[in-house]
Specification:
heterodimer, A: about 160 residues, alpha/beta, Oxidized Rhodanese, domain 1, 2 domains, 5-stranded parallel sheet, 5 helices, about 35% helix, globular, B: about 575 residues, mainly alpha, 3 domains, two-stranded antiparallel sheet, 4 strands, about 75% helix
Chain lengths: ~160, ~575
């Protein structure tokens, strides 16, 4: 039966699509590690507020345009941009750009953040800072979505 | 004669579609879809992160107060919408096909219209199934592969993009594979023949995307270019045909096909010059074989030469022979943005409008060279053979130009409106401060000088004069005062200024945001664009199914040589003219 052959062909195509799709999907959208990298402290929204009250520098690592749209009140923009390295804990920082000249004091308390979960920018920035001898790096993993949900001051 | 062929094929296709609809609805194929639809999935992740955070915080607060965890529903993301759209289309069509499929199996067909309509459905379902696979599966798979290969450093260019392996080319190739490897099954024959109808419907709908404001910009140029190339190629074919001793009727049909718009021109010219069926077939074969080559070659050349959408549209609309292949090449060049296709179609339609002139010319030429030719009523032929879909296109264009679908000044559904800027899209204080900082810098002596130099270098022009630093600063100052763009001119100037080296990143983002906020996309036209893409995908798969090895062989011999020479001359000539005289208008 010719028509059966045709439909068999279509079925194979569907199967091919399904196979390709699922094989790629597994690691297409990785999430950041839930633990802080070496030399960095993991903090939550409450701790960020406390640190900020004590004069910590809060750093938005997202793109400058995202910072313009609205960010944690009192934060400064130091984009981790362009971010070309792989979204993984063992990323190659030499492929990316992160301008540390705005953070001159290596002993100052610094909090880095971006969006939560799949955003690697703040994780990578924290790693780069720690490797470059910054002593007090804090990583606010939950980032902007969490801050907004808590209705904390934005600007 | 009874057309309906009893076969379980339609029923099976319907069931396959329903299965796909169900899988999408239940979320079983989410992993696969997240790979296929990368951009809408990243929107999904944003929506999900926001939702997760809100849920977590709300739960925390409720727990602290000793209340049960609240239930919040996650808002639909673009990814959810895309899946819902696939499920909807699959379920509607799958359901209809299952019902008609069952009906076909139990029904005893009787001679008449119902029999004919029922006989068309399996073939339509067959093409639609392939269209689903191509648009939802192969197209994104190839796009992802192209990007992955480039990112992995295996190739320095995106092969899927450069080779134009998108749904248009893949659709035609799949159509060609099906017809040559598997043959079109008997039950699908009647339905496959409707492809041209869908393609022409697509061209009619395309009229909704056009508005007189932009046609005026292209009008004069397209008419002059088309005039030269159409009349020129007809003349050359007639001259070469005579020299090579090919029958007059053959030469005349070929000249119409090569000069005007391929198949419909050939068919329209054939009665005028009393062409035989095999001559028409020869001509169509020549046009198709040359056109297929062009369709694959043009977009590649276009990308290599880095042509803009207007340039490529003008070139394809002039140089490629068949309406369908013009659309194919334009879509292949730029599948996501209909800008190129629209320009190509304007040139294409302008060319089709030359048909009456060519028909008159050929009639005169034929009568002169063929003594004793029977008198043909010219007026009647023109009225009877003028492509009806062109009239439909013109009507849609007229309706679109008077603002039926979107404000009359729209450009493929996109239009500028300051009044419609939403409250939450107004510039925030922080953004205004960043812009203010830039304004102060640019107003300083050093800034003014740098800005003036930049504007002159980039040739930023407004209403016939070069924009000065003062004008640019005024535009920026207006933006800060109003917190939004007020005129299109202001938006255009600032778009260029923001790209200047050293412009503050936050300020640049703010300009881009303000520009986006003032540009609106008509929902109606967006809907039409989606329909047009489906109609073309459907039509082009069907078109591919008409390109058999036999049809390709038919193009051999003298007509192929003439066709090849004239076609190449036209393609190269129009390329040079386009590169010299056509600039980006938008």
């Amino acid at each position: 039966m010719k028509s059966i052959k045709q439909l068999f062909f279509a079925l194979i195509t569907f199967g091919f699509m399904a196979a390709t799709g699922s094989s790629y999907a597994a690691d297409a959208h990785p999430e950041t590690p839930t633990a802080a990298p070496a030399g960095v402290k993991l903090v939550d929204a409450k701790q960020v507020q406390e640190l900020q009250a004590k004069g910590a520098t809060v750093v938005d690592t997202r793109k400058a345009s995202e910072f313009g749209e609205g960010s944690i009140k009192g934060s400064i923009s130091v984009p981790y941009d362009p971010e070309k390295s792989a979204k993984a804990a063992d990323f190659d920082a030499t492929q990316d750009k992160f301008d540390m000249s705005k953070l001159s004091d290596k002993n100052a308390v610094i909090v880095v953040f971006c969006n939560s979960g799949t955003c690697f920018k703040s994780y990578k920035a924290a790693v780069v800072l720690a490797k470059n001898g910054y002593k007090n790096v804090n990583w606010y993993r939950d980032g902007v979505p969490d801050w907004k949900a808590r209705k904390l001051p934005m600007e | 004669m009874i057309y309906t062929i009893k076969s379980p094929a339609l029923l099976i296709i319907g069931i396959l579609m329903l299965v796909w609809g169900g899988l999408n609805k239940s979320g079983t194929v989410d992993d696969m879809q997240s790979y296929l639809q990368k951009s809408s999935y990243s929107d999904h992740m944003k929506v999900k992160e926001k939702y997760d955070a809100e849920l977590r915080v709300a739960t925390e607060m409720a727990t602290a107060e000793g209340k049960p965890a609240p239930e919040i529903k996650m808002p639909a993301s673009k990814f959810d919408q895309a899946k819902a759209e696939q499920a909807k289309l699959s379920n509607y069509f799958g359901g209809a096909f299952v019902i008609i499929g069952l009906f076909t199996l139990v029904w005893t067909p009787k001679h008449g219209n119902l029999d004919y309509f029922v006989s068309v459905v399996p073939g339509v379902a067959y093409i639609l199934l392939i269209a689903f696979i191509v648009r939802w599966g192969l197209d994104p798979i190839f796009a992802n592969w192209g990007k992955a290969v480039k990112e992995a450093g295996i190739l320095s260019w995106d092969f899927a993009h450069i080779m134009n392996l998108n749904y248009v080319v893949l659709g035609i190739v799949i159509g060609m594979i099906v017809v040559n490897v598997f043959k079109i099954p008997a039950w699908a024959g009647n339905g496959v023949r409707t492809a041209r109808f869908f393609l022409k419907s697509g061209v009619i709908l395309l009229g909704t995307l056009y508005s007189a404001a932009e046609l005026a910009q292209l009008g004069g140029l397209s008419v002059i270019m088309i005039g030269i190339f159409v009349l020129g190629s007809v003349g050359i074919v007639l001259f070469m045909g005579k020299r090579m001793g090919i029958p007059n009727s053959m030469t005349a049909v070929l000249s119409a096909g090569m000069g005007v718009c391929g198949v419909s021109a050939t068919v329209a010219a054939s009665p005028v010059v009393q062409a035989k069926a095999e001559e028409i077939a020869y001509t169509i074969g020549t046009i198709l074989i040359f056109g297929v080559g062009c369709m694959f070659l043009f977009p590649t050349v276009g990308h290599i030469l880095n042509m803009g959408p207007v340039q490529f549209g003008a070139w394809a609309g002039t140089g490629i022979l068949n309406s369908a292949q013009v659309a194919g090449a334009a879509l292949a060049f730029d599948p996501h943005n209909i800008e190129t296709l629209k320009v190509a179609e304007i040139f294409n339609i302008t060319r089709v409008l030359f048909l009456p002139i060519i028909v008159l010319w050929l009639a005169a030429w034929y009568v002169k060279h063929e003594q004793g030719a029977a008198k043909v009523n010219l007026a009647q032929v023109v009225i009877a053979k003028f492509p009806v879909f062109v009239l439909g296109f013109i009507a849609m264009f007229a309706l679109s130009s008077i603002g039926t679908f979107a404000p009359a000044g729209h450009y493929q559904g996109k239009y500028f409106s300051s009044a419609e800027v939403k409250e939450d899209k107004l510039l925030k204080d922080k953004e205004a401060r960043a812009l203010d900082g830039e304004l102060t810098r640019l107003r300083g002596a050093e800034g003014t000088q740098a800005l003036g130099k930049y504007l002159a270098e980039k040739n930023v022009v407004l209403e016939g004069h070069k924009v000065t630093a003062d004008e640019a600063n005024q535009a920026l100052s207006d933006l800060i005062t109003n917190k939004k763009m007020t005129t299109r001119q202001q938006s255009n100037i600032l778009k260029s200024v923001a790209k200047m080296g050293g412009f503050d990143a936050v300020a640049k983002g703010s300009v881009e945001k303000a520009e986006k906020a003032a540009t609106h996309d008509s929902k109606t036209i967006k809907e039409y664009r989606n329909w047009i893409a489906w109609l073309f995908a459907f039509g082009l798969i069907g078109l591919g199914m008409q390109i058999t090895g036999k049809a390709l062989k038919q193009a051999g011999g003298a007509p192929l040589i003439i066709g090849g020479v004239v076609g190449t001359l036209k393609a190269v000539g129009s390329l040079i003219v386009v590169l010299l005289f056509v600039k980006e208008f938008i």
